[in-house]
Design goal:
The protein is mainly beta. It has one domain: RNA polymerase II/Efflux pump adaptor protein, barrel-sandwich hybrid domain (OB fold (Dihydrolipoamide Acetyltransferase, E2P), Beta Barrel). Helices cover 5% and strands 57% of the residues. It has one helix and ten strands; from the N terminus they run E-E-E-E-E-E-E-E-H-E-E. The chain has a five-stranded antiparallel β-sheet with strand order 3-2-1-4-10, with no helix packed on it. Strand 1 and strand 2 form a beta hairpin. It is elongated and about 45 Å long. The mean pLDDT is 95. It comes from Halarcobacter ebronensis. Pfam families: TOBE. InterPro entries: Mo/tungstate-bd_C_term_dom, Transp-assoc_OB_typ1.
């Protein structure tokens, strides 16, 4: 599980739908939530989480995508299995893991040192824990 320390920078809500914006080490992230706790507020530090299987990767990305979170990163490690591969990438000082099929990793010719765009839907990001209230 990926764990990111972030600070809540904005909260937009209509009825019980919330779009929460975060900043983490110069990166901006967004989360969509239907059940945001009432005491959640701008300025709080939180641990965010996203499953490695929910992070898509793009190489040489161009064009517009609906993914709210498009994170430029560098591959620093890979574990290539028979069916699945784990891509370890670093964005600023934040390390993230993505699990993709080994066929995709080979087709994309992903190697250590490559620049990738990590793609995360806002609905796949969640607050794991509030660090300060």
């Amino acid at each position: 599980m990926n764990k990111i320390v972030a600070t809540i920078s904005k909260i937009h809500n209509i009825e019980n739908l919330n779009i929460v914006e975060f900043e983490s080490d110069g990166m901006k992230l967004k989360m969509m939530s239907l059940d945001l706790k009432e005491n959640t507020k701008v300025g709080q530090s939180v641990f965010l989480t996203v499953k490695p299987t929910h992070i898509a990767v793009a190489k040489n990305l161009s064009g517009d995508l609906s993914y709210s979170n498009q994170i430029e990163s560098k591959v620093f490690k890979m574990d290539e299995g028979e069916l699945l591969s784990v891509i370890y990438a670093k964005a600023s000082e934040i390390e993230l893991q993505s699990i993709i099929t080994t066929d995709s990793a080979k087709r994309m010719n992903i190697k250590i040192g490559d620049t990738l765009t990590l793609l995360i839907k806002a609905s796949d990001v969640s607050i794991l824990e509030v660090i300060d209230d």
